[in-house]
Amino acid sequence: MQTTQIITAFITDQYLPGTSPADLDADYDLLATGVVDSLGLVRLIDWLQGEFGLDIDDRDLTPEAFRSVSAIRNFVEGR
Amino acid sequence: MNSGQVTPEFVRAFWRHARRRPAAPALLHDGTTVSYGELARLAQACLTGPPGAGLAAETGPKSPGTIARILAFLTQGRPVLLPPAGTSGTALAELCQRGASPPDGTCFVLTTSGSTGTPKLVPLPGSRVARFVSWAARQFAIGPRSVVLNYAPLNFDLCLLDVWATLARGGSVVLVDPGRAVWPGYLGDLLASTCPTIVQGVPLLYQVLAERALSFGSADHVILTGDHAPAALRQRLPGLFPAARCYNIYGCTETNDSFLHEFDPAQAGRLPALPIGQPLPGVRVRIGDDGELVVATPFQAPGYLGDDPAMRFDGDWFRTGDLVSRERSGLVYLTGRNDFQVKVRGTRVNLEQVEQVLAGADAVLEAAAVAHDGRIHLAVRGRPGTALTPLAVRSLCTERLSLAMIPSSIAVVSAPLPRTVTGKVDRKRILRDIAGTPAGTGHP
Q1: Is the domain A3-16+26-77 a CATH 1.10.720.60 member?
Q2: Can you give the residue ranges of every domain in chain B?
Q3: How far is Cα A7 from Cα B228, in angstroms, rounded to an integer?
Q4: Which residues of A touch B86 (CB under 8 A)?
Q5: pLDDT in tens, B4-62
Q6: For B199, phi and psi rounded to 5 degrees?
Q7: Nearest C-alpha in A relative to B436
Q8: Tell me, what's the ipTM?
Q9: How far apart are CA B358 and CA B367, in angstroms?
Q10: Residues in B lying within 8 Å of A, measured between beta carbons
Q11: Cα(B91)–Cα(B118) distance, integer angstroms
Q12: What is the helix (H) or strand (E) element at residue B419, kind and residue range?
């Protein structure tokens, strides 16, 4: 699977039960719509570390990096 | 300042500190220190409009620039409306319209959850905020050497203590970025580098700090507020703050703080619940027949703004909606609510308001909101023939509700929602059968 699909699948499965991955636009604002709340973001970062083998220190981050599926993809691919 | 008569006293006190000790640190923000002199210059630059130009709505991010702008508005005698995060467009315009003419002397207009589909507006008179500042400064010895952690977003009443009382007394405020407020690394570093002497926050703050085995010896006073702190969390307090006196504070936006309980952190982990303690000086208390806590405080709002029926205010008395019990010792404990208000990360949310907002949408036939473990779950039945999806419902919510009120999970159903024999939405069954299923909600 491509990075975008993996991330979309995780987001819909974990935060949007009942929503098909095909319905979630890669630019959908996950933060302003409350899909991923502040605690959800901590879980998302944990998952990204495990899934993509990243070493993420939350001291270097801002929430903007996780605003949408495409923002998260850019973040992962930029690492 | 030529508008001295209308500038609230706590703001005049800020200007005095800026004149006398311009180099003293006022705000610690994102690794930088803004001195009283610098903050005063920032505020001075915002003194552009005519004094007394009416309500100013401030929706800026938590930053020195936003605080400077608020100081400038208050200096000019303008009341400042601080809407909840995520308020924009028509919702913001509606709030501004309803709040356009607060009573003379109002300094802040805060919001609180209502049951009518829109938030209630709470006007706080400058004179009463001044009384609160006096109490808080005395109680926690806030002065030029104090470093006070500001965890809450700027629209929360908690800021009256950690931002405004601190600036009135010449102390330093540590601004926590609300976007990163639950990131343990960020928060731990921030406390370790700024060494706050006073820490106030909802239980979530302490939960995040407890994620790492850290210890903050700088704290003299640690205040829990806004929600129940579970025993497991209380057990961590002595390790986190080895040198601090600990307090549980009870209050609400309409009345500000009204009860305080100092507790021994070494003992607190063994108690089933923390009492809210005793009324603050000047606070009068009645307990209704149903156990509802009714208070009158020296700090409270005169009523709600606009055409809200002021059902909770009865003369000086304010019905909190919180049910309490008073032990023989005189200590008061919270036992529940007499309405559908719940706390979501320290913010009061009325489930009926969430439902009403949804029920006003064309595609929605009926909606029920339930709360579980501090999260809101929503069940929605769409009109036949409309292809309502959870994402579409979420967009509806985003347009009409502030961020804290947007449900964590949304289920779209086709069958009628379960009702009680009296025809009311049966929240218990909805929680059990539709909205509360742990699988798939993604919230362990």
Answers
A1: no
A2: 9-337, 342-435
A3: 35
A4: 32
A5: 458 999 999 999 999 999 999 999 999 999 999 999 999 999 998 777 789 999 999 99
A6: -125, 125
A7: A17
A8: 0.86
A9: 6
A10: 86, 179-186, 189, 345, 389-391, 394-395, 397-398, 403, 406-412, 440-443
A11: 8
A12: none
Q: Which of B177, B180, B354 to mutate to test the interface with A (most CBs of A within 10 A)?
A: B180
Q: Of B62, B68, B19, B28, which is closest to residue B48 (Cα–Cα)?
A: B68
Instruction: Give the tokens for residue B298.
Output: 């020296």
More confident residue, B140 or B362: B140
d(CA A60, CA A65): 11
Question: How do residues B356-365 score in pLDDT, each as one tens digit?
Answer: 888 888 899 9
Closest CA to B284 of B247, B320, B327: B320
The share of chain B scoring above pLDDT 70, in percent, equals: 95
Both tokens of B425, joined, read 């939405």
Superfamily of domain B9-337: ANL, N-terminal domain (3.40.50.12780)
At A35, the amino acid letter reads V
Give pLDDT tens digits for B232-252.
Answer: 999 999 999 999 999 999 999
Task: Return the percent helix, strand and coil in chain A, to nearest 5.
Answer: 60, 0, 40
Token pair of B393, please?
């419902």
Instruction: Report how far residue B38's alpha carbon sits from residue B170's, in angstroms, rounded to the nearest whole number.
Output: 14
Q: Are B219 and B246 within 8 A, CB to CB?
A: no
State pLDDT tens for residues B176-209: 999 899 889 999 999 999 999 999 999 999 999 9
Q: Which residues in chain A are closer than 8 Å to B389, comparing Cβ atoms?
A: 19, 23
pTM: 0.88
Task: Choose among A75, A30, A72, A58: nearest CA to B180.
Answer: A58
Burial of B415 (0-12, 13-18, 19+ CB in 10 A): exposed
CATH architecture under which domain B342-435 falls: 2-Layer Sandwich (3.30)
Rg, chain B, Cα only = 22
Q: Compare all CA atoms of chain A with the CA of B88 and give the residue at the minimum distance.
A: A32
With CB atoms and an 8 Å threshold, state whether B410 touches A18.
Answer: yes
The answer to whether B55 and B96 are in contact (CB under 8 A) is: yes
Give the 3-state secondary structure of residue B46. coil
